[in-house]
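Before relying on records like the one below, remember that each one covers exactly one chain. Contacts with other chains, cofactors or solvent are not represented anywhere in the record.
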Amino acid sequence: MSNTPSRANLITREGRVALEKELDHLWRVERRQVTQAVTEAAAHGDRSENAEYKEGKRRLREIDRRIRFLRKRLDVVHVVEYSPVQDGKVFFGAWVELENDDGQIARYRIVGADEFDPKKNAISVNSPMARALIGKVVDDEVVVHTPEGKKNWYVNAIQYQPFNENS
């Protein structure tokens, strides 16, 4: 077995911190609040017809399931730190600006599966776009195979800090 982490277990420092914050919030805040609500609902008598009690117990199971998942996940994820050696090439954690043949501009950050967020243009390292981008340099053509067919993009910029909104 190799010591090299699987792509499925890669995460940025910010991603790990976000998972740790979620775990802490679930454990210290949300679980305590729901447990208190369940205790209060149970005090109202017959639990078989007590919707608040049933809903509270359901929510408590969801919270506990997420807590177990996060604890296990945090044990196996590997934080990929930025290294100056990466400059000029697309690697995990990079922000990349692309342009297609129609002049459309797209910006993405390559992150771990736990951090994937379309609203933030954060794409998984396992996505077709990220796989096509890894190792590319500025001005390289990137061919991405999508369900709609092949798409051509050109790398305009690569950086390891967020893009300035004005640029």
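Helices lie at 13-42, 51-76, 128-133.
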